[in-house]
Write a structure and sequence with these properties.
The complex is a heterodimer of chains A (86) and B (389). Chain A is α+β, with helices and mostly antiparallel strands and 86 residues long. Helix content of chain A is 23%, strand content 23%. Chain A starts with a strand and ends in a 5-residue tail after the last strand. Chain B is mainly beta. The two termini of chain B are 21 Å apart. The chains are: A alpha+beta (86), B mainly beta (389). At the A-B interface, helix 3 of A face loops of B.
Chain lengths: 86, 389
Amino acid sequence: MRVRIPSPLYSYTGGQAEVLGAGASLGELLRILDARYPGLRFRVIDEQDQVRTHIRFFVNGEPVRSLGQPLSADDEVIIVAALSGG
Amino acid sequence: MQVEISPNPAKGDSARSQRVVLLVGTRKGAFIYESDASRGQWRLNGPHFLGSEINHVVLDPRDGETLLMAAKAGHLGPTVFHSADGGNTWKEAERPPAFRKAPEGETGRVVDHVFCLGCGHASQSGQWYAGTSPAGLFRSRDAGRTWEEVGGFNDNLYSKIQHRVESVPDGSILHSIVIDPRDAAHLYVGLSTGGVFESTDGGESWRALNRGVEAYFLPEKEPEFGHDPHLIALHPLRPDRLYQQNHCGVYRLDRPDEVWQRIGLAMPKEIGDIGFPLVLHPRDPDTVWILPMDGTEAWPRVSPGGRPAVYRSRDGGVSWERQDKGLPPEQAWLTVKRQAFGADEGEPVGLYFGTTSGEIWTSLDEGGSWRQLACHLPEIYSVVGAKGR
């Protein structure tokens, strides 16, 4: 599946704005991405397995909050780092 | 980029070859200034991690080379970076400070940001401590690569003081970590609206150490904890001496005494003894500097009267002298955060403070006169002077 990466995470993906991912759920996708890009998961998911305050996930354009969200190979996942403040 | 200010007289070639570094954490990145012992010219290395909140940057005095940095990109999680080459390259911690996952159905704590980094005891190479918000204590035994909870604090002590500490609207902070140079297992920590706590077993068990400290905002008359230290410091040459800048004044404690003495009462009444940072002279346990802030009525937390000044005591707080030569004489409403006032180990000692308006001021004669070293930086969170290799 295609995964779009926000610019604050480019340092993990070697500057790639889009990577290929896999996994049957959003949680599994993030574990796979973290194995390939160490440290990435903790920047978007906290130690209680909750999505961090300023992070948003979209699957095929629909907002998703649960790591249990099922995914399929032809899905497009977008990670958004929602900026706030000045 | 180079910044020039009037240097101190040369102290010989060996002294000149000694590197002095100034580690500046800001709301939008880290800035590292480097100079020789004269401190006349400063070379800026940075910004590093532009756009990230950098709460603290600390150089390991055990090797003069390793740097640790507490960072948080505005919308990503908190982490710690380490550098083995004086800040030229950085690596992220493989396991940053994080609380353990709560059992199903319970609410666990989440580190919002790493507030302070504390270098471990001289005998424990590679050991570091980190204090977080919400208040937590973490330890690394591998120079910042992986971090583990200090369970004696995060579990045992925290469960007893949680009701006080978590009443702070913006989140509690563990802001001070102090290690007795005679005993690696003897620790002190300071928490906002928590107080000062002491451990003599490496952090497994803790006891409150707050007697004599005022806490007018608490309902109890003499609470055991819940006090609001802004910063605590121990003098390395007299490790039984502790100083504390508190929400309710400036205090000193000489162990084995248990009762803090409010040395800030000797400050001029119109200035008061409210503030955030406090700096010790590296070679004289009786010399201490504070930077008073306006703590009246609405707590403006700016220079009292718009006239910034540092106050120095050379007798352990019995008396204080105003040091404002070179600082703006009026209409300067500076705010200096608790980690944004530091000293180097030079002769004479260099002092440095950074403001929330992005200015760095320095004195190369122990506070006698001040010059601006930098301006137009982002909001300054921390300023640490250190001796580089």
